[in-house]
């Protein structure tokens, strides 16, 4: 890794307030491009309102689209400009200088690399250190499926986890998986991802809007997935499930929204199956909330890696019934408002989605209403903000967080 930025470019933090109850928070995150953790950081800061002025962000890499959105909120984002595979002693020195010279109350680290960087940044600091919170946003179904460098970072984090004030997980499955490889169980807290239900909501006009964007006949039943192209998302299985549904007579259109789908393995598979005309690809969009409510069914086809997928929560909030694979906390997320199928099983996906399509519009609408209510009851931004406040106060004061404060989802 290397940094092309001057060491003199220090993080612009808010001046220390005379009000000792105000905490100054600095967030370390691997990048500020588009991703689940990055989107949650952006939503979290937006939900804080005026309180966000007490927060700043350090991106280990550059400033991506999410980072620019955060800057537009008036929150400072400091890019370190690190490059994969290269270590920079100057960047390490810069991190340490930032945290030594600024009145930081709590360091909140997001994602594996951000968590490791937070430990390095605080190492060797004399006197009282800021409280440290790690945020884990990845499930670990099989560590061997991770890149070798990621495997090493995860194992180092496990060895160092006892020195962290609090480790938050966005899914219960993720917490259990990380504790199984050595993450300190006494530090754990569950803070499920959240969604702004005023942004993702039912919209009667969304179906016509989506059909127009896709340029397809109005009688098609649209089955969508919103995520970047990546092997763990297993969009190839989604294509195979689509082919099976078409063979069974369902008038279905698969919709892939996200980065990297053009020319992807899924697109190649659709072509091979002869269903390319029944697969619509939309690359990166900024109007997801206006399109998702137009779907008839949301299908999460992931084979591994999911912890608590935001896209499913957003679809539920928009009253779209969901079929999800049994990875991470997906089963707990949808509860009895959706259908859970085994990962990497295209036939099971086709059967579950086909059943929802055959059930009719009224039954899908009923499930959609139940899904939105579940999100409102369990995954609101107000709850997300308060749970983080609790974690910050806990690590700053040095008081252990009681086990009963670890949050569970309702059945």
Model description:
By secondary structure, this protein is of the alpha/beta class. It folds into two domains: 25-194 and 381-405, Rossmann fold (3-Layer(aba) Sandwich), CATH 3.40.50.2000; 206-378, Glycogen Phosphorylase B (Rossmann fold, 3-Layer(aba) Sandwich), CATH 3.40.50.2000. The protein is 40% helix and 14% strand. The protein has 15 helices and 13 strands. Strands 3-2-1-4-5-6-7 form a seven-stranded parallel β-sheet. Strand 11, helix 11 (310-317) and strand 12 (322-325) form a beta-alpha-beta unit. Helix 1 packs across helix 15 (381-397), helix 3 (89-101) packs across helix 4 (111-122) and helix 4 crosses helix 5 (148-160). The relative contact order is 0.12. Mean pLDDT is 89; it is low at 1-13 and 402-411.
Quick overview:
The chain is α/β, with parallel strands linked by helices. It is built from 15 helices and 13 strands.
Major sheet summary line: 7 strands, parallel
Secondary-structure-derived class: alpha/beta
Spatial ordering of strands, largest sheet: 3-2-1-4-5-6-7
What would CATH call the class of the largest domain? Answer: Alpha Beta
What letter string, H or E per element, gives the SSE order? EHEHEHEHEHEHEHEHEHEHEHEHEHHH
Computed Rg: 22 Å
Total of helices: 15
The CATH superfamily of the largest domain is Glycogen Phosphorylase B
